[in-house]
Amino acid sequence: MTLEFFASASKNTESALCDELRELGFQSVRLNRGGIPFRGDWSEGWRACLESRIAQRIMVLMGRGKATNADELYREVQAVDWGLYLTAEKTLSVQCVTVGSQLNHSGFVALRAKDAIVDQIRERWGDRPSIDRDDADVRVFVYLANDKLKIYLDLSGQPLHLRGYRAESGEAPLRENLAAAMLRMSGWDRQSPLIDPMCGSGTIAIEAAQWAQGLAPGLARPTFGFQRWASFDEDSENQLRLMKGELRGAARGQRPSVIARDVDGEVLDIARGNARKAGVRLSFKEQSVFDLQADGPVMTLVSNPPYGKRLAATPDFLDRMGAVFRKLHGWRIALLAGSRAIEEAMKVKPANRIPIPNGDLPCDLLIYEID
Ligand SMILES: C[S@@+](CC[C@H](N)C(=O)[O-])C[C@H]1O[C@@H](n2cnc3c(N)ncnc32)[C@H](O)[C@@H]1O
Question: Cα(111) to centroid of ligand 1, in Å?
Fold first, then answer.
């Protein structure tokens, strides 16, 4: 059975995600705002959860229709056979986004959709599932745009950036899927050396090493949402185990040098532990970014420098960092800047500037090619 999936993307990472899904061999991949649709059977949805580094969530389209009022909405949601995934013993959450529609209150739409699902299960089993907003077994997303309804079931469970390798860490950790998007956008060839001289908990370096080795990012995750559905039986369990085994076997021997440095030894210990759990070998060193040598091999530098007073990024710190980076002739440098001061301190024009938020923080990805 061919299903339509939707891989949701952080803002402005859509084209990186689209490239990634095409490279991974998914079918009917289309560039789209907010996320990337693709097609396939159920196992392709599982594979996307395991293999995508950039997606936030993978969802499957369960139904579509028109909903100009509450009754139409209720009917459309009831047209889906929820009993395949949900029983009275399981928990449910329903979220909604509505734009340009007559039903313009997302809370109301979510509530009505939830009623339609719960009523169907109650009719079938004589009892109803309970609601769990934070960690439901079955998560439903309802999108209503210009009165057109799309009903999705989420395969991911916890968002995909939670890979399972990161111990809660140093300050201001970067989301793993954003680090993966930065790496792809930086133009790194996955063969030449890469450095993060302010690596914190090591997210960028770990994602880089996993990507270069073709190590699927979801292999360290204990579980995905789809494993908690009623339909996920012993056969499914075996099929998933096989898929994971194949993905493990497909990892390449290629191991470019990936270097992770930080001035803070304690943070570096956290990064070491994270890399071990992620199954990658990095070259760690406690060193200040000011001691980065311009006369060594040419590398790609991808980093998320400290920003704001909290992380002690004084103007003096950024000016000194900019002066060091400007001497790295022939290097490609991609910086996730949480403050304008970083671009000012670089004093050269970036070849590209892409606004991408890190969680709630507006940031710019600045890409430099140093002459
Ligand atoms: C925004 S955090 C990086 C977060 C990281 N991307 C992560 O995922 O955890 C900035 C890092 O810069 C480090 N740092 C501050 N001053 C430094 C210096 N002079 N040289 C190297 N690292 C420095 C801090 O210790 C901190 O870990």
Answer: 43
